């Protein structure tokens, strides 16, 4: 094994993680109070209480995709987009790798903006007026808290996420328990059944897009540090249950709150909407809880973004990497908070469109592993100096899914020609991208023996 190949896998002395570490990592990433907005959004598709509850549960199960990718990472001790080189080739992997990095740093910036606004709301509780100076102070405080996590190793990070799970997960439950009694139960149970095709399915798709599918690009980044002796089933259960439990509970409460807080899903600042519904004595705890729920998501985004940067062969020191991502975390929020607030809305739409490419990538990644799981990943396939530069089947399948996804997707600045009927104003195009890429790979896979990915495996294994 040469030096380049040694850099592909996580060092054996660092592969000491336990499944419970993954449970707390993904639990902490899903305790954010903003999850109630997802629940309210589901009801907004004109669904009954039973339909909304079922939609929340099915959507949360999208983390099975994250769990499956985590199992692959554990078995190989290799991070997500490093493994992705096998499915796309070294050069073919560059575009989805870049999209993954862009998606991570983009949502990281959005979460930093949200965290800054929450800290400003906390200052208002203490009668500290909002101005450019206090806004800048809040931005620097929140960004610094996230950047400090970049100095932690994997074991320290797991302990920190465990802390967030117990402390802020518990506080979130307290906040939700205070809000639940305001539910209008009669209105809730009287909501009529909506359409399963034009309401239920789009509701599930839009939540899946923002949860399991979105987080799939980070799955193996954490499981790569797991001990090789850990059972695959334990990895899967830890990831799925760790994410589904808090996500489903918080979304379920969101469906309840849709009766007492009808504007929560459409408000520009849902955090303040929830705050006004709470007793004044708990306002400080609430805003601290909201901040604490955002930080774990930012930590995961930051770590995976740094890993993705390295996978694109942009190798810099940890301090330089933190400087690059820190600058992005600060400059984008500065532009949004001080110059152009309209930019944030369009930026979020843009990041949503990137999700189509991420979904298509996930399908190709899963399909490639499924067909080649017995042979396993040869490090030569992942070596940037190796011969596996371009896997036509993987790249073609990705393009097919991405194009189909865009054809059936619409936003305020982009309209796919087939984004009509049940495909209008939702994320069904993203699910089509996933399914189309997977089917394309299945159809094209038999031709891989002719100078393609499979034959390369055989040659390099000899």
Automatic annotation (TrEMBL):
Q: Which UniProt keywords apply?
A: Membrane, Transmembrane, Transmembrane helix, Transport
Q: Where in the cell is it found?
A: Membrane
One of this protein's Pfam families, by short name? Transp_cyt_pur
Q: What is this protein called?
A: Allantoin permease
Where does this chain mainly localize?
A: membrane
User: What GO cellular component is one of the record's annotations?
Assistant: plasma membrane
GO MF annotations for this entry? transmembrane transporter activity
